[in-house]
Amino acid sequence: MSSPIVTRRGAQNAKIQTRAMVKSKSVATSGVVSIMGATSATGSSAGSGSHGSTGNESRKPSAALLEAKRRARLLKHQNNCSNMNADTVTDIFSNAVKAKGMQRKPTGLIYDETMSQHCCLWDPKHPECPERFTRVMERCRELKLVDRCLLLPARPALKSEILKLHSASHYERLEQTSGVRDDELMEDLSSHFDSIYIHPSTFELSLLASGSTIELVDLILQGRLQNGMAVIRPPGHHAMKSEFNGYCFFNNVALAAQHALDDHKLQRVMIIDYDVHHGQGTQRFFYNDPRVLYFSIHRYEHGSFWPNLQESDYFAIGAGSGTGYNFNVPLNATGMGNGDYLAIFQQILLPVALEYQPELIIVSAGYDAALGCPEGEMEVTPACYPHLLNPLLSLAESRVAVILEGGYCLESLAEGAALTLRALLGDPCPPLVEHVELPCPEACEAILNCIFTHRPYWRCLQLQQQYTVEELNNVQPLPGAAPLHRVQRTWLGAPPPPDRYPTRDTAPCIPPEVTARKLERLRLLQAETRLSTPPVRVCYAYDEQMLEHCNLHDTDHPEQPQRIRQIYQMHDEYQLLARMERVGTRVATTDEVCLAHTRSHLNFVRRLLGREREELQEVGANFNSVYFHPRTFDCATLAVGSVLQVVDSVMQAKARSGVCIVRPPGHHAESDQPHGFCIFNNVAIAAQYAIRDYGLQRVLIVDWDVHHGNGTQHIFESNPKVLYMSIHRYEHGSFFPKGPDGNYDVVGKQAGRGFNVNIPWNKKGMGDLEYALAFQQLIMPIAYEFDPQLVLVSAGFDAAIGDPLGGCKVTPEGYGLFTHWLSALAGGRIIVCLEGGYNVNSISYAMTMCTKTLLGDPIPTPQFNAAAPRPPTVAYLSCLETLQSCLQTQRQFWKSLAFCSKLPQFVSENNNEDFLTATLQQLNISNDDAQGAAGGPGGDRAGSGVERPSGSKPKVKVKTLTEFMAEHKEALEQEEMFAIYPLKTCPHLSQLRPEEAPQSIDTSAVCTECASTEENWMCLSCFAIGCGHYVNEHMEQHFHRVHHPLVLSFRDLSVWCYDCASYVDNPRLYIYQNLAHINKFQEPMPWTHSCAQRDDSRYDSDANSDGDDDGGGTSGGGGEGGDPNAVATSSNSIFIQLERNN
User: Fold this and answer.
1) 984 in a structural domain
2) Engineering a disulfide at 977: which of 49, 756, 971, 1107 sits with its beta carbon 3.0 to 4.6 angstroms away?
3) Of the listed 278, 629, 668, 1034, which one is catalytic?
4) Considering the domain boundaries, does residue 912 fall inside one?
C-alpha cells in the first residue's frame, strides 16, 4: 500500500520556492534556457546509470524538468498579456514583511467640555441632554481610560469644510441663531424641523463637533494615531444637505468621510451606523458614490418607527455607480439583543467589509439600541459593543474612528461608550455575562432580505442556495430540505408630517416599573462584567531541547527541527520576544500525559529512549507517517509540559494569551498510538488539564491545520465540555489522514453530538477568502453560542501559501486575521499552539503574524480580491458547497445557524407595488435638491422662510412599458420571461355599480373568514374581503358561493375575473383601484387610460379596448387563481412572468 501522504525526499523535492521567481523577460528567457540545458545534462546522466531501475521510473520526468516547463508556461502567459508593459514581481510574503515595521500607535480621544452647554432651554427633560456627554466622560475617567489615550485638541470646522456637503443657506440659517437669547423665537424656528431644538451655542458647538470629527480622521490617516474616538455633541447622522433633523445640524461623519475622499484621496471608506435610528442624512450624501459603503442597522418596524422613511428599508441599495454600496438592515421588532446584532455582523457586515477592503472605517456609534434606552427599546448589553467593534479593528490596517451619535439611557450609554474606548485601546473584549440569545425571527428575516437584495453585487453573499418557482409550489418538500425564504415588503409608515413639530415633552413614555427593571439589570451586568486584564499581554514557550527530535535516516524530512528555530528567530527579528514573557519549560508528568493517552502508549514511547537507529526505524515503519529518535520521548513530554505552562500562565491571569513554539506536533496522535508526525496530543492534553485543574466547563479547540486532527476528534468525540472545530483539506476522504472521519457529517457521539464540527475542503487552492467565510458563517457563530472559557488553537500552518504538502493559499496576514477574531472569545484567553507546516518561511511569517495580532499590532489586511471582475474559482465554488453542507448538518445542534434558508431566484409577487419597485430601481435620494425631497425647491414652507422637513416619500419616476421591455428583450426572446396581457374588456363589468362604490377602501382589512392579512382580495360586487388562492382560498370560495366574478387585489391593485380566468384592465375599475391606491400610498392613482376621465365613472365596457400599450391601469401579479409569480410592471397593463428555463 502506498504511503498516505507525501513525505521525506519527495516532499522536499516538491517544495515551492518562496522567493519571487518572475523576472524580466530577458532574464527569464535565459533562465529557462539554462535550466533546460541543465535538465538535458541531468537526464542524460541519469539515463546512463539507470539499468537497475524499472521502465516506469526511467520514464518519470525529473522535478527540474517539470519546474522548467512551469516557468516556460509562466513566461508565455506574461508575453500574451497585452497590458503588461513591464513584468511584475510578486512576493507572496510582501505584506508580512511590511508588517515588520507596523507597531501599535496611540489611540486618540477628542472632546471639549463646552459641548455640555448645548441644551433645550424650554424642555429640561429633553432626551438629548448635556448629561449624555458628561456621564460618558465620567465613566471613561473612572476606568482610567482617558489617561491611556492621546488627547487631541478640539477645533471648529471651517465653513469651506461644511459647504462640501451642506448648502450655504443651511450654514447661514444656523449661523444666524448664534448667541440669540430669544427662547420663544428659537422654539418657533425649531418647530419647523423634526426633532430639533436650538440653543444660543448650537452653531459654535455644531462646528466644534464636525471639526473634531474631521481632525480625528485626519490624524488617523496621517499615521499619527492607530484609531480614535470622538465624544461629541450635537450628533450628526440625520443632518441633510439643507435640513436640520433628529437632534442633528451638521453631519459630522459624512463631512469627515468627504474630507478623507477629497484631501487624502481615499477610494474606499466604510461607514457603519448602528444607531437605532436610520441615518438617512448620511445615506443621502453617498447614495450614488461607490467610494463610500454605508451600512446601517436600525429599528424600522415597517416604517412606523422614526424617521418613517421608505428609503430606510432593505431595498434601498444605492443608485448609479453606487448601486450595491448602501446597506440597510431594518429591524421590524423591539427587544433585539446581542445575538441579533452579532448575527448581522457575521452574516453580512464582516464578509462585505472583507470584500470591500476599506481604507478607513468610521463608526456612527449610537447607543440607543442598548439595554434601557427608551428611544430604541432594544436590549444590546453594553459589553456587546466591544464585540461588534473588535473584528473591525483588524480591517483597514486598524484605521478606525468611532464617533458618538445617539443613546438616551445614561447608564447604558456611558458604559457602552467607555467599553468601546477600552476596545480601541486594545483591551480584550469582556466576556458576555448573559448567554447570547439566538437571532429572533425578525432579525433572520431582515438579514435574509438584505442578502437577497445585495446578492447580485457581492461575491461573499452567495452562500444561500436559491429555489425556483417549481420548488415554491411543491406541496410536499423533501425531508430535511432547507426552508424557503419569502422576500416580502410591508409598509406601515406614519401620518403625514405636521405643519409644526412638537418641541416639548417629546421623550417617549416608558412605565416606571419597566425602567426600574432594566436599570437593575444594567447594574447587575456591570457588577458581573470582568474588566480586569493581566499585566502581560502575551507569554510564550520555547526550548531548544525540542530541536533534538529529528529523522536520523532522512535529514530532509518535512517535520524538521528547523521549523521551530526559524519561527523563534523571526519573532526575534520582528522584535516581539522583548515584548512577551517567556515561561519556564518543563516535561509533562505521567498523569498529565495520561489525561489524553493510555498508559500503555506512554510506556511504549518511553521505552524507545536510547534505542539504536535501525531499531527505531523499524518501529516507526509500523505506524502511519511516524519517525522516532532516541530523545523523542524527552522532546514530546517537553512539548506537552511547555504547553501546560502556558495554560497555567493564562488561567492564573499572569498573561492574557499565549504562544507555544513547540514540536513534535500533536493533533494526529491517537489516545493509544502515534500518528502523522505526532507523538503526544499537546492540545488535547492541555484541554483536559484546564478542565481538571481549573474546573472549566467549556473549552474550544479550533484546528486550522490543513490535515484533519483525527486524534483530537477521537479523544473528545463524546465529551460535551470540549467543542472541536476543524477546517481542513479532505478531498472526499482521499487526503491525509484519509477516511470518512473528517467529513462534515461526523458530529460526535453520545453526549458529544454536535460538539464536533468538521469543515472539509474537497478542492485544493483554498485561500484567505474561503477561510474567512468559514470563520464568519460557521466558526464564530457557533463559538459565540458555545461561549468558551478558554480557546486553544491547533495552529498548523500547512494551509499557508507555499507549503509543499497543503496545496492551499492562506497568507500569513490571513492567519493573523483569524487569530484576532478568536481573541474576542473567552475574555481574550487564547493559546496558539504550533502543529504542522513544512515551509519554514511560510510558518515563520504566519506564526509571527498571529503573535503580532495578540500583541495588538496592526497587520495588513488580507487582499481578498473578491470584487475583481473574474469568474469565481473552482476552489471558491467548492467552498460554498462545503459550507452549505456543514450548515445543513450543524443547524440541528446550533441555533445560531439560522440562515440556511434558500432565497428565491425570481421576484416574488409581493414586489409589485409601484412605489417600492420604483424606489429600488430609480430613487436618487442622495440629491436633496431633487423636486419634493428634503431641502428642495418643492419643499419650502409657504411664508416660513425655512425649508419643509422630510417625512413623505420622495417623488420617483416609474419606468414605462417600452423601457421595461427593452431592458428585458433578451430574456423575453430566450423565453426566460413572458408577458401576460390583461383583457381590455370583460362581459362581467356590467355587474359593477360604480355609484355604489364605498367612500374608502381599507387595504389592510383582514379576511372575514380567517382574519389573514397575507394576501387579501375584495369582491367588487358586495365588497366582501377574502384571502387568496395561496392562503385559505376564501375569496375563491366566496365566488363559487355567490358568483361575484370580479375581485380587487389589496397587494398590487390588480383586478381578476374568475369567469374569464384573466386579469382585466378597464376604466370602469379605476374608481375602486383609486380608492385602494389612496389608502395604500396616500395619493391618487395616475390616470393612464386612453379615454378621457369622467366624474361619474360611467364608461362603455369597450372604452379602452383599442389595444394601446399605455392604456392599462395599475396591473399586478399573482392573480387570484392565476400564477402567483407574475410580476407587474409599474403602471402598464402587462404582467411579466419569471420562470426557470430548463
Assistant:
1) yes
2) 971
3) 668
4) no
